[in-house]
Amino acid sequence: MTLDRAVLAFAGCMVLLSVVLTVFVHPYFVWFTMFIGVNMLQSAFTGFCPAAMLFAKLGIKPGCAF
């Protein structure tokens, strides 16, 4: 698995988790969903992604985007 796919998989899991938490735990978890979306947008424009930096330090091989 490349770094790009790992970041996309992680982002998808976090979005799904936040939606489940919003539905079953408390509606304020929608802010977590919004945070993830904003982080994905800023990453698309700036190229700065904390998850990509973490996965790179864990030894996942780089892909095209990161």
TrEMBL record:
It holds the Pfam family YgaP-like_TM. The keyword Membrane applies. Gene3D superfamilies: 6.10.140.1340. Coiled coil: none annotated. The chain crosses the membrane at residues 7-25, 31-56. The keyword Transmembrane helix applies. Keywords: Membrane, Transmembrane, Transmembrane helix. Residues 2-57 form the Inner membrane protein YgaP-like transmembrane domain. This is Inner membrane protein YgaP-like transmembrane domain-containing protein.
